[in-house]
Design a protein that fits this description.
DUF6197; mainly alpha; two-stranded antiparallel ribbon; 5 helices
């Protein structure tokens, strides 16, 4: 860049960036199962589940109902959560089959995956980080498909 050019004033945050921020949040503030956040009223940064941590990464604060986010933050949340689900579908698929043998759900739920009693915080943090790396590997610097 030449000295006479104006640098960009905004930086586009990608789903991979948000997933890494969610992983960092969990490392710093703790991981939780069962609800988006641990039940505390006096802590603005409570332990969170994977989806709750992604929400905090998108909004910058604890969000009780993601549908109440402004449209841009909601779009970012849904994009990052979608990338995470795509990663889980390829690495930890969970298929629900009804009693007649029909597939009920072909996507891994990040909520039930997070809340599995055998799940650990390190597994969640690792999956968020790996999903971000996979997203990056499939795209170029501008976010377009490689």
């Amino acid at each position: 860049m030449k000295a006479t050019q104006n640098p960009p004033t905004t930086v586009q945050v990608t789903p991979a960036d948000l997933l890494r921020m969610a992983a960092l949040y969990l490392r710093r503030h703790g991981w939780h199962q069962g609800t988006y956040y641990a039940n505390t009223t006096d802590n603005p940064t409570p332990p969170a589940c994977a989806a709750g941590a992604i929400g905090i990464a998108c909004a910058g604060y604890r969000v009780e109902r993601f549908s109440q986010l402004d449209p841009d933050a909601l779009a970012d949340y849904l994009a990052a959560l979608g990338v995470f689900v795509d990663y889980l579908d390829t690495t930890a698929p969970v298929f629900f089959i009804d009693e007649d043998g029909y597939l009920l759900d072909e996507h891994t739920s990040p909520y039930s995956w997070n809340d599995d009693p055998a799940r650990t915080a390190e597994q969640v943090i690792t999956a968020l980080t790996a999903a971000a790396a996979e997203w990056d590997s499939l795209r170029n610097a501008g976010g377009e498909n490689a």
